[in-house]
Amino acid sequence: MPPPTPGPRTLYDKIWDDHVVHQQEDGSALLYIDRHLVHEVSSPQAFEGLRNAGRPVRRTDCTLATVDHNIPTVSRKNFTTTKNFVEEPESRTQCMTLEDNVKEFGVTYFGLTDRRQGIVHIIGPEQGFTLPGITCVCGDSHTSTHGAFGALAFGIGTSEVEHVMATQTLLQRKSKNMRITVDGKLPEGVGSKDVILHIIGVIGTAGGTGSVIEYAGSVFREMSMEARMSVCNMSIEAGARAGMVAPDEITFEYLKGRPLAPPTGEAWDRAIAYWRSLKTDEGAKFDVEVNIRAEDITPTVSWGTSPQDVVAITGKVPDPSTVADPTKRASMERSLKYMGLTPNTPMEDIKVDKVFLGSCTNGRIEDLRSAANVILAAGPDAKVAPGVVAMVVPGSSLVRQQAQAEGLAAIFTRAGWDFREAGCSMCLGMNPDQLAPQERCASTSNRNFEGRQGAGGRTHLLSPAMAAATALTGKLADVRKIIGAAVSDESSITVKNALEFLTDEVLSPPTPGGYLGDTPLPAADTPSPTRKFTIVKGIAAPLAIENVDTDMIIPKQFLKTIKRTGLKDALFYTLRKDPVTGAATDFVLNRAPYDKASILVCTGANFGCGSSREHAPWSLNDFGIRCIVAPSFAEIFKTNTMQNSMLPVALSKEECLILYDDAMACKELEVDLEKEEIRRETGEPIKFKTDAFRRHCLLNGLDDIGLTLQKSELISAFEKKRTENWPWLDGFAYIKEGKIPNAGITKKGAKIDW
Ligand SMILES: CC(C)[C@H](C(=O)O)[C@@H](O)C(=O)O
Ligand code: SF4
């Protein structure tokens, strides 16, 4: 095993050191992955890849699947089959494909008839699948949520999903250590959502780029686990690879007795002893430190189309004429136009049409309690304001059940809210829960991108308490005016303990897994010329937008495919098609010669931020774009492009502007990976830097999975050590004792108690 990071170590250093299977000479490392969550949107192509290569899922005992994004949130009382239940054909195909895949590969699955079904990031912690000190991944950007347990948890694209399923490892480069400390006392009416929105407002959506954030200070120490999850969840909106909070007594208390956590007794004691060591050492070095005073945080709400566009609820819509940077000013003007807002309008004057309480950020029981408390405080006759539609979508079926048992569901329905079944729902509207064009929504979710909740829909992000206050007043509302000092993440309406809801009937166990132990793995496949990137010469399309998010690159309706191709027309769909007539707009990629562009030059930073959807590079590739130039890239997007033999080139803003001018003048550019330079038509080269290992793979068309499989002996050796040191990580901690606790595939005709 490679030596640990020298000197005093951070929490991130420790988890990293404990997972290195192999340290490469170029500085990257093969990292072992302890937990893999799978959902229907980012997995079909990965399973197909495994099938085509004849590879099994290496650790079915460390993999857990569910359906969340596509499913309708209408009552499941009359559920018979997924085929009958999911009406929209492409969503249905995706859900049924997952059902087929989990059966074929023997992966444990919480399907629509299982009470443990829910949003991946809610069910992992709920079941004790997420544990301190682990590495946890999912084909989903909000995997950062699980960092609340002191885990290294991050989102990946579909190619990496396949890599993890085949090898239980990922090739990673170590990120920078960043610490955000919030000390002091939060003012009245301020909760965890306000804290993270405020942080993103301060550091920006690219503020955490290249870093893993550790949240430290009294404010996080005092937070409940659920509040910590809401904070870590949105680390991705801050651009970070992951976010984490060191585990403590609050963490252990939350985990104790959860079905997939180590059982109490010797296993639990051993686990706790290890977990207690997971703290940043005194004197450990952070590359970036941010300090925020708790007293400066107010109830916060977003005004624009990026999560960094936030302001205090008592504030006003900002004025672009006060912004000097032209790209920034243009982005702000564009946001305000999209949002239908006039500068200097008081936030509290903004009327809403819908209120959405749910998502992996705020769909947990404490979120529902916090919103219900506001309704209660407004009086027994409090009702949703006339003309406003308010919906609660619990994050999991267990949360839903608990909310019913605690009487929260009744509080919501009495006040005129629609209390629905669990899923992602209107957080991104892949199911029928969507905003109509120009509808305005107060939402407890995490993204306010253009079209996020429905084409043309307008999103304001806020906390559950603020969402409840907004539903009552019909305008973005300051919750303090209703409830004063009583707002907190954890309310007192608890009639039952969460754990009571976690004992579920044991259905059939999963098919014996693909755990290969010491069995030799298939050899690497041969390099493929189609995977090569050497030189790309051609027209470059100019783009002057900041924070181009992957929702903008490819909207959600195109994520329902189970293929990697056929996405050419989906690229920048909302910018390329008139929403009313459906005719082509004059967006740059619709105009000659840019409709044949093979390079994209963007002058705005943080290209590809947001969702981990690999559909973004797939659609760019289908269009013919092989290289993207920008001042900076979001990390998951960057990896996803290279997994598809495309090249992201980060240059200084000034260099981007030079190439942008060339692109505007329809001049061709030549991107040479071997020489690491972009040649202008004048012959003048602009140099860039790439990761040596990635360059090698791209130049030679090498496949990551094939390369990793050559290290199968090292992986097996690591697994042996893992079993000795951290035995609770094998088989959900139970398999060895012969008690496989979960459902696997739903038994046909099993009685469902809804
Ligand atoms: C569909 C999935 C890949 C995506 C993500 O990665 O975040 C989704 O969960 C989202 O929130 O946009
Ligand atoms: S952000 Fe929204 S769509 Fe993505 S996983 Fe969370 S709830 Fe689902």
From TrEMBL:
Primary enzyme class: lyase
Pathway field: Amino-acid biosynthesis; L-leucine biosynthesis; L-leucine from 3-methyl-2-oxobutanoate: step 2/4
Coiled coil region boundaries: none
Single GO MF descriptor: 4 iron, 4 sulfur cluster binding
Positions of the Aconitase/3-isopropylmalate dehydratase large subunit alpha/beta/alpha domain: 13-474
Swiss-Prot/TrEMBL cofactor(s): [4Fe-4S] cluster
InterPro entries assigned to the protein according to its UniProt record, in alphabetical order: 3-IsopropMal_deHydase_lsu, 3-IsopropMal_deHydase_ssu, Acnase/IPM_dHydase_lsu_aba_1/3, Acoase/IPM_deHydtase_lsu_aba, Aconitase/3IPM_dehydase_swvl, Aconitase_4Fe-4S_BS, Aconitase_4Fe-4S_dom, AconitaseA/IPMdHydase_ssu_swvl
Similarity remark: Belongs to the aconitase/IPM isomerase family.
Protein known as: 3-isopropylmalate dehydratase
Originating organism: Sphaerobolus stellatus (strain SS14)
